């Protein structure tokens, strides 16, 4: 039995589908099991990573884990004590190795989970994706209402990765043992700026879109109303750091799955209705 946390998220849903295609028995946790809308063959159980002691781990030996909750070491201990042997953690490419100080709250949270799992003695694989292609949905409402995307750091670079590609690598790590101990940096096949991403959305919609730079401080003021200030600062700080600095594009998706990674254009084509 494989337990999938974050099963209703943008990556987790694809992890569930991929595991079912592999013939695996899947248990998924959700804070709202009745609204999870997962395939009927999935055992959906109420659960929350904020209370790891209550995780439904009976019969579970492998876990797909998202870095949620504030008790990473307790979570790792609970998994190990329950007889779990293997964990695949959705981490982030912001995590730096061989350092005591991570570049921001997001990296620090994920590094804490990585450290806790390593210390637990479990077989672990850490997935470190670059920016998700789905982050572009933050502009959807602006594009629905007009022809201008207003945001900071239009020249921030990333190699946006399709969530299905992250899930495909996760599935291989969950069912194959040869990825134990790996730290896998995952990127899409092409580096581009946020301004470039808006250009690809414009092409898919067949109408011109402009990117208008606005001060980061103005965005921060709005974001802290619904997100912790340290997380907001980490997000904006990451964008600022990548201005003029294209990331290294990796071949991890191809190497692990045996197929080419999906492009940002393909992601946009799939999500075009959400921008109309």
Automatic annotation (TrEMBL):
It comes from the Bacteria. Residues 6-175 form the NAD(P)-binding domain. SUPFAM superfamilies: NAD(P)-binding Rossmann-fold domains. It holds the Pfam family NAD_binding_10. This is NAD-dependent epimerase/dehydratase family protein. InterPro entries: Ergot_Alk_Oxidoreductase, NAD(P)-bd_dom, NAD(P)-bd_dom_sf.
